[in-house]
Specification:
The chain has 474 residues and is an alpha/beta fold. Helix content is 36%, strand content 20%. The strands form four sheets. A six-stranded mixed beta sheet has the order 1-5-4-2-3-6, with helices on both faces. A six-stranded antiparallel beta sheet has the order 16-21-20-19-18-17. The two termini are 36 Å apart.
């Protein structure tokens, strides 16, 4: 039996190597025990899944374990976006959720996400509780055949879409978007977002064209369904062919969003978060705290100062963001990976709602995506971001950590270092307010080196210095 640990967002593993049916059942048994310990089992649990290899069968296995533990289970009737699953927890007033998805990971992987009664990520302390009750052997797992569980009502197949669509209607008026006459390209990345934007925006002048909208768990034309270059390049190539006004790109489970302009140019995820902050604070006139990971844009800190709202910075992952959003009643929360959550909704990434908000920003300003960036930069100045994700020999992990922990550079990329932050990894704050962050990924065996700066000509040098700090080569 594999030693299973929860990372940044649940447990992920390689299918047939450590991600096996027996290990899925062990993790499901641990979550059942956790729900019972926390007094949440009587509320039931929602289970959903994505379009990866065997995902529906892994979900059925988890449902069998829940049923055998006496926990009522709502099992989605097909692949379902992560935000829709999360909202179903609230709609059903359930004790939590299990989501069988590896989100943006390579096609070889699958995952097991768990959610709390708010539909948000479970905080680290509670993840440790789940790990603590993980059975050593599958022989210690309770199991009931799915057909039997369905027959006696312990498992109920349901459609999570209607309640979620009704919730979207309370958060945004899509009628002006329908009437705008936009030509929208949606790259579904072979995932759960397929069909959503055409359905939500049907019946008006706006046209929606989807690409990569079938089930294909090897994810052709991309290394993984993550909405960043180069994975988005093939989808963005359709912008000019279709004369699209904008491109919306959802990852495999549709909880993240990427954005492309009318020229087919990618707008990076830090700039998207800046645009969303501008949308709420300037265009809509809303006020409330902003929650962000240390790995995302300082443009939000500048906007927070301008509009008099507090900005809270957390470690990387929604297991940190979600609890903080609930604690401070945040207006918006988000991270560098393109995941954003919103007030009045579940404290969970929602790539569908984020896409609708970005379209609404275009409606309300009358601006094209490239012009929206000019509006943002007029407020906060131009910011430039990049990231590299080198793999490394895992036997060097301790050595790399020592290198980074001991680093006290006076400059990075030729810019003076003014502070070092160790909330999650090591972040080197620079004189221009930018930053370099070096940290191990919580979902994959790689190290992440990323930066943001107001000096476009320094980005490459900053990243190179980050690699040197870690003792790695480009």
């Amino acid at each position: 039996m594999s030693d299973i640990k929860f990372g940044t967002d649940g447990w992920r593993g390689r299918i047939a190597e450590d991600y096996t049916f027996d290990n899925v059942r062990r993790v499901a048994q641990a979550f059942a025990a956790f729900l019972q310990q926390e007094g949440l089992a009587s509320k039931g649990v929602v289970i959903g899944y994505d379009k990866r290899f065997h995902a529906e069968n892994f979900a059925a296995s988890a449902a069998e374990v829940m049923a055998a533990n006496g926990i009522h289970t709502w099992l989605t009737d097909g692949p379902t976006p992560t935000p829709t699953i999360s909202y179903a927890v609230v709609d059903k007033q359930a004790g939590g959720a299990i989501n069988l998805t590896a989100s943006h990971n390579p096609p070889t992987d699958c995952g097991f996400k768990v959610r709390d009664p708010n539909g948000g990520a479970i905080p680290p302390a509670d993840l440790k509780k789940i790990e603590a009750v993980l059975p050593d052997s599958v022989a210690d797992v309770k199991r009931m055949k799915l057909d039997d569980a369905l027959s006696d009502g312990r498992v109920q197949i349901f459609d999570a879409a209607p309640a979620y669509i009704a919730q979207l209607g309370r958060l945004i008026d899509v009628e002006p978007i329908k009437a705008a006459g936009f030509n929208v390209l949606v790259d579904c990345m072979w995932g759960n977002g397929a069909g959503w934007f055409p359905n939500l925006l049907a019946g008006g002048k706006t046209a929606v064209h989807e690409v990569h909208n079938q089930r294909n768990p090897i994810f052709p034309h991309m290394a993984r369904p993550e909405p960043i270059p180069p994975n988005v390049d093939h989808g963005l190539s359709f912008v000019k062919k279709l004369d699209a006004d904008v491109a919306i790109i959802n990852d495999g489970d549709a909880d993240r969003v990427g954005f492309g302009d009318e020229n087919g140019e990618f707008i990076d995820q830090l700039r998207v978060y800046g645009l969303l902050g501008y949308y709420f604070l300037e265009v809509r006139g809303d006020r409330g705290p902003i929650v962000k990971t240390i790995s995302t844009t300082k443009m939000l800190n500048k906007l927070g100062q301008m509009y008099g709202v507090p900005v809270y910075e957390t470690g990387v992952g929604f297991k940190y963001i979600a609890p903080k959003m609930v604690e401070v009643d945040a207006l918006i929360g988000g991270e560098e990976s393109g995941g954003y959550a919103f007030h009045g909704h579940v404290p969970e990434r929602d790539g569908i709602l984020a896409g609708l908000f970005l379209l609404d920003l275009m409606v309300k300003t009358g601006k094209k995506p490239s012009q929206l960036l000019h509006l943002l930069f007029e407020k906060v100045g131009a910011h430039f971001y990049d990231r590299i994700d080198p793999a490394f020999d895992q036997t060097r992990r301790a050595e790399i950590l020592r290198n980074v922990s001991a680093a006290r550079p006076s400059t990075v990329g030729g810019l003076k270092v003014t502070d070092i932050v160790t909330v999650d990894g090591h972040q080197f704050i620079m004189e221009d307010g930018g930053w370099l962050l070096v940290r191990f990924s919580g979902t994959e065996p790689i190290i992440r080196v990323y930066c943001e700066t107001t000096h476009q000509d320094r980005v490459e040098a900053i990243l190179a210095d980050g690699m040197k700090i870690a003792g790695l080569r480009l």
